[in-house]
Design goal:
This protein is α/β, with parallel strands linked by helices. The protein has two domains: 84 residues, Rossmann fold, CATH 3.40.50; 160 residues, Rossmann fold (3-Layer(aba) Sandwich). Helix content is 50%, strand content 13%. The protein contains eleven helices and eight strands. The strands form two sheets. Strands 3-2-1-4 form a four-stranded parallel beta sheet, sandwiched between helices. Helix 2 links the parallel strand 1 and strand 2. Helix 5 crosses helix 6, helix 6 runs parallel beside helix 8 and helix 9 packs across helix 10. The longest helix is centred in the middle third of the chain and has 17 residues.
Length: 266
Protein backbone atom coordinates (compact mmCIF):
# COMPACT_ATOMS: atom_id res chain seq x y z
CA UNK A 1 0.00 0.00 0.00
CA UNK A 2 2.80 2.40 0.84
CA UNK A 3 4.35 1.69 -2.57
CA UNK A 4 1.08 2.65 -4.28
CA UNK A 5 0.84 6.07 -2.64
CA UNK A 6 1.81 9.18 -4.58
CA UNK A 7 5.21 10.78 -4.06
CA UNK A 8 3.50 13.66 -2.25
CA UNK A 9 1.63 11.30 0.09
CA UNK A 10 4.84 9.47 0.94
CA UNK A 11 6.64 12.78 1.50
CA UNK A 12 4.02 13.82 4.08
CA UNK A 13 4.19 10.45 5.79
CA UNK A 14 2.00 7.55 6.86
CA UNK A 15 0.27 6.51 10.06
CA UNK A 16 -1.36 3.36 11.36
CA UNK A 17 -2.71 1.84 14.56
CA UNK A 18 -1.46 -1.56 15.58
CA UNK A 19 -0.63 -3.86 18.46
CA UNK A 20 2.74 -4.12 16.79
CA UNK A 21 2.90 -6.57 13.89
CA UNK A 22 1.22 -4.50 11.18
CA UNK A 23 2.99 -1.48 12.64
CA UNK A 24 6.37 -3.07 12.06
CA UNK A 25 5.46 -4.03 8.51
CA UNK A 26 4.35 -0.50 7.69
CA UNK A 27 7.38 1.02 9.39
CA UNK A 28 9.70 -1.17 7.30
CA UNK A 29 7.87 -0.35 4.07
CA UNK A 30 7.94 3.36 4.90
CA UNK A 31 11.65 3.26 5.70
CA UNK A 32 12.44 1.50 2.42
CA UNK A 33 10.35 4.03 0.46
CA UNK A 34 11.57 7.13 2.30
CA UNK A 35 8.30 7.98 4.07
CA UNK A 36 8.05 9.20 7.67
CA UNK A 37 5.98 6.75 9.71
CA UNK A 38 3.88 7.02 12.86
CA UNK A 39 2.49 3.96 14.66
CA UNK A 40 -0.15 4.28 17.37
CA UNK A 41 0.25 1.36 19.79
CA UNK A 42 -1.53 0.23 22.96
CA UNK A 43 -0.05 1.12 26.30
CA UNK A 44 0.10 -2.63 26.94
CA UNK A 45 2.19 -3.44 23.83
CA UNK A 46 4.96 -6.00 24.45
CA UNK A 47 8.47 -4.57 24.56
CA UNK A 48 9.60 -6.77 21.68
CA UNK A 49 7.00 -5.16 19.41
CA UNK A 50 7.82 -1.65 20.60
CA UNK A 51 11.49 -2.27 19.93
CA UNK A 52 10.66 -3.67 16.51
CA UNK A 53 8.70 -0.59 15.46
CA UNK A 54 11.43 1.72 16.77
CA UNK A 55 14.07 -0.37 15.03
CA UNK A 56 12.45 0.35 11.68
CA UNK A 57 12.58 4.07 12.40
CA UNK A 58 8.92 4.84 13.12
CA UNK A 59 7.59 7.28 15.69
CA UNK A 60 5.44 5.60 18.34
CA UNK A 61 2.43 7.10 20.07
CA UNK A 62 0.74 5.16 22.86
CA UNK A 63 -3.05 5.36 23.16
CA UNK A 64 -5.27 3.24 25.38
CA UNK A 65 -5.60 -0.51 25.26
CA UNK A 66 -8.26 -1.16 22.60
CA UNK A 67 -8.18 -1.03 18.82
CA UNK A 68 -10.90 1.63 18.92
CA UNK A 69 -8.78 3.94 21.07
CA UNK A 70 -5.79 3.46 18.77
CA UNK A 71 -7.91 4.10 15.69
CA UNK A 72 -9.29 7.37 17.05
CA UNK A 73 -5.82 8.66 17.93
CA UNK A 74 -4.37 7.61 14.56
CA UNK A 75 -7.18 9.36 12.68
CA UNK A 76 -6.56 12.51 14.73
CA UNK A 77 -2.84 12.41 13.92
CA UNK A 78 -3.59 11.89 10.23
CA UNK A 79 -5.85 14.95 10.18
CA UNK A 80 -3.51 17.13 12.20
CA UNK A 81 -0.31 16.25 10.36
CA UNK A 82 -1.52 15.46 6.86
CA UNK A 83 -0.51 11.81 7.11
CA UNK A 84 -2.00 9.00 5.02
CA UNK A 85 -3.69 6.25 6.99
CA UNK A 86 -2.46 2.73 6.26
CA UNK A 87 -5.13 0.67 8.03
CA UNK A 88 -4.17 -2.61 9.69
CA UNK A 89 -6.90 -4.60 7.93
CA UNK A 90 -9.96 -2.83 6.52
CA UNK A 91 -8.70 -1.57 3.16
CA UNK A 92 -8.75 -3.21 -0.31
CA UNK A 93 -5.00 -2.75 -0.84
CA UNK A 94 -4.17 -4.28 2.55
CA UNK A 95 -6.51 -7.22 1.94
CA UNK A 96 -5.04 -7.78 -1.54
CA UNK A 97 -1.50 -7.71 -0.17
CA UNK A 98 -2.38 -10.20 2.56
CA UNK A 99 -4.08 -12.40 0.00
CA UNK A 100 -0.81 -13.12 -1.79
CA UNK A 101 -0.07 -15.57 1.04
CA UNK A 102 -3.01 -17.62 -0.18
CA UNK A 103 -1.70 -17.62 -3.74
CA UNK A 104 1.72 -18.76 -2.52
CA UNK A 105 0.15 -21.65 -0.62
CA UNK A 106 -1.67 -22.85 -3.73
CA UNK A 107 1.50 -22.55 -5.78
CA UNK A 108 3.75 -24.32 -3.29
CA UNK A 109 1.25 -26.96 -2.09
CA UNK A 110 -1.21 -27.67 -4.92
CA UNK A 111 -2.41 -30.72 -2.97
CA UNK A 112 -3.61 -28.63 -0.02
CA UNK A 113 -7.06 -29.53 1.32
CA UNK A 114 -7.39 -27.00 4.15
CA UNK A 115 -5.95 -23.58 4.94
CA UNK A 116 -6.20 -22.33 8.53
CA UNK A 117 -5.72 -18.61 9.09
CA UNK A 118 -5.84 -16.52 12.29
CA UNK A 119 -8.36 -13.69 12.52
CA UNK A 120 -7.70 -10.36 14.22
CA UNK A 121 -9.41 -7.58 12.31
CA UNK A 122 -9.78 -9.97 9.40
CA UNK A 123 -7.43 -8.57 6.76
CA UNK A 124 -5.24 -11.66 6.48
CA UNK A 125 -8.21 -14.03 6.66
CA UNK A 126 -10.22 -12.08 4.10
CA UNK A 127 -7.35 -11.81 1.64
CA UNK A 128 -6.28 -15.43 1.94
CA UNK A 129 -9.83 -16.74 1.74
CA UNK A 130 -10.65 -14.69 -1.35
CA UNK A 131 -7.42 -15.70 -3.09
CA UNK A 132 -7.86 -19.39 -2.28
CA UNK A 133 -11.59 -19.70 -2.97
CA UNK A 134 -11.50 -17.74 -6.24
CA UNK A 135 -8.65 -19.95 -7.42
CA UNK A 136 -9.56 -23.31 -5.84
CA UNK A 137 -13.14 -23.48 -4.51
CA UNK A 138 -12.52 -27.06 -3.39
CA UNK A 139 -10.00 -26.01 -0.73
CA UNK A 140 -11.48 -25.50 2.73
CA UNK A 141 -10.58 -22.23 4.47
CA UNK A 142 -10.96 -22.06 8.24
CA UNK A 143 -10.67 -18.87 10.28
CA UNK A 144 -9.32 -19.13 13.83
CA UNK A 145 -10.04 -16.75 16.71
CA UNK A 146 -9.21 -16.80 20.42
CA UNK A 147 -12.26 -17.73 22.47
CA UNK A 148 -11.91 -14.46 24.35
CA UNK A 149 -11.87 -12.33 21.20
CA UNK A 150 -14.37 -13.96 18.85
CA UNK A 151 -15.50 -10.79 17.15
CA UNK A 152 -15.77 -12.27 13.65
CA UNK A 153 -17.65 -15.35 14.85
CA UNK A 154 -20.07 -13.11 16.71
CA UNK A 155 -20.48 -10.89 13.65
CA UNK A 156 -21.19 -13.82 11.33
CA UNK A 157 -23.82 -15.08 13.79
CA UNK A 158 -25.42 -11.62 13.91
CA UNK A 159 -25.27 -11.12 10.14
CA UNK A 160 -23.39 -7.82 10.45
CA UNK A 161 -20.20 -6.50 12.09
CA UNK A 162 -20.60 -6.25 15.85
CA UNK A 163 -18.44 -4.58 18.47
CA UNK A 164 -17.57 -6.66 21.51
CA UNK A 165 -17.64 -4.99 24.91
CA UNK A 166 -14.14 -6.27 25.54
CA UNK A 167 -11.63 -8.81 24.31
CA UNK A 168 -9.20 -10.81 26.39
CA UNK A 169 -6.63 -13.34 25.25
CA UNK A 170 -2.97 -14.18 25.40
CA UNK A 171 -2.97 -13.56 21.63
CA UNK A 172 -2.57 -9.77 21.76
CA UNK A 173 -2.41 -9.44 17.96
CA UNK A 174 -5.92 -10.86 17.59
CA UNK A 175 -7.75 -8.54 19.97
CA UNK A 176 -9.66 -5.96 17.86
CA UNK A 177 -13.14 -5.54 19.33
CA UNK A 178 -14.73 -5.30 15.87
CA UNK A 179 -13.96 -6.69 12.40
CA UNK A 180 -13.73 -4.34 9.45
CA UNK A 181 -16.73 -3.84 7.19
CA UNK A 182 -14.80 -5.03 4.13
CA UNK A 183 -13.12 -7.90 5.94
CA UNK A 184 -16.45 -9.04 7.40
CA UNK A 185 -18.06 -9.12 3.96
CA UNK A 186 -15.19 -11.11 2.45
CA UNK A 187 -14.95 -13.53 5.36
CA UNK A 188 -18.71 -14.12 5.20
CA UNK A 189 -18.47 -14.81 1.48
CA UNK A 190 -15.34 -16.95 1.33
CA UNK A 191 -14.48 -18.60 4.64
CA UNK A 192 -16.07 -22.00 5.21
CA UNK A 193 -16.10 -21.90 8.99
CA UNK A 194 -14.63 -20.06 11.98
CA UNK A 195 -13.40 -21.93 15.04
CA UNK A 196 -12.23 -20.65 18.40
CA UNK A 197 -9.31 -21.85 20.50
CA UNK A 198 -8.64 -21.41 24.19
CA UNK A 199 -5.54 -19.65 25.48
CA UNK A 200 -4.09 -22.89 26.83
CA UNK A 201 -4.39 -24.48 23.39
CA UNK A 202 -2.56 -21.49 21.93
CA UNK A 203 0.25 -21.75 24.49
CA UNK A 204 0.56 -25.47 23.79
CA UNK A 205 0.84 -24.67 20.08
CA UNK A 206 3.60 -22.11 20.76
CA UNK A 207 5.57 -24.74 22.66
CA UNK A 208 4.88 -27.46 20.06
CA UNK A 209 6.12 -25.18 17.27
CA UNK A 210 9.30 -24.44 19.18
CA UNK A 211 10.05 -28.04 20.11
CA UNK A 212 8.83 -29.88 17.01
CA UNK A 213 9.15 -27.38 14.18
CA UNK A 214 11.99 -25.27 15.63
CA UNK A 215 9.97 -22.10 14.95
CA UNK A 216 9.62 -19.32 17.53
CA UNK A 217 6.08 -17.95 17.30
CA UNK A 218 4.03 -15.54 19.38
CA UNK A 219 0.57 -16.63 20.57
CA UNK A 220 -1.27 -14.68 17.85
CA UNK A 221 0.66 -16.52 15.17
CA UNK A 222 0.15 -19.92 16.78
CA UNK A 223 -3.66 -19.79 16.91
CA UNK A 224 -4.01 -21.47 13.53
CA UNK A 225 -1.69 -24.28 14.60
CA UNK A 226 -3.69 -24.69 17.81
CA UNK A 227 -6.79 -25.29 15.71
CA UNK A 228 -4.95 -27.74 13.46
CA UNK A 229 -3.65 -29.69 16.46
CA UNK A 230 -7.23 -29.84 17.75
CA UNK A 231 -8.30 -31.55 14.53
CA UNK A 232 -9.87 -28.68 12.59
CA UNK A 233 -9.84 -29.11 8.83
CA UNK A 234 -10.85 -31.48 6.08
CA UNK A 235 -9.05 -34.78 5.44
CA UNK A 236 -5.82 -34.26 3.54
CA UNK A 237 -2.87 -31.86 3.70
CA UNK A 238 -3.46 -28.73 5.79
CA UNK A 239 -1.54 -25.46 5.88
CA UNK A 240 -1.74 -23.38 9.05
CA UNK A 241 -0.59 -19.82 8.47
CA UNK A 242 1.82 -18.63 11.18
CA UNK A 243 1.39 -14.89 11.07
CA UNK A 244 3.49 -13.47 13.89
CA UNK A 245 6.82 -14.17 15.55
CA UNK A 246 7.23 -11.30 17.99
CA UNK A 247 7.51 -12.90 21.41
CA UNK A 248 9.82 -11.97 24.27
CA UNK A 249 12.13 -14.84 25.12
CA UNK A 250 11.28 -14.27 28.79
CA UNK A 251 7.62 -14.85 27.96
CA UNK A 252 8.52 -18.02 26.10
CA UNK A 253 10.41 -19.28 29.13
CA UNK A 254 7.34 -18.57 31.28
CA UNK A 255 5.33 -20.81 28.98
CA UNK A 256 7.94 -23.56 29.33
CA UNK A 257 7.94 -23.30 33.13
CA UNK A 258 4.14 -23.44 33.26
CA UNK A 259 4.18 -26.53 31.03
CA UNK A 260 6.79 -28.22 33.26
CA UNK A 261 4.68 -27.41 36.33
CA UNK A 262 1.56 -28.88 34.73
CA UNK A 263 3.48 -31.98 33.72
CA UNK A 264 4.89 -32.43 37.23
CA UNK A 265 1.42 -32.08 38.72
CA UNK A 266 -0.01 -34.98 36.75
Amino acid sequence: MVAQLTDEERRRGVVTFSSGNHGQAMALAARELGAPAVVVMPTTAPKVKIDGVKGYGAEIIFAGTTSTERSVRAEAEAQKRGLTMVPPFDHPWIVAGQGTAGLEILEQRPDVATVLVPIGGGGLAAGVAAAVKLSRPDVSVIGVEPAGAAKMNSSIAAGHPVTLDRTESIADGLLPVRPGDLTFALVKQFIDTIVTVEDQQIVDAVLWLESSAKIVVEPSGAASVAAALAGAGAPGPAVAIISDGNIDLERLEEFREEARARSAGR
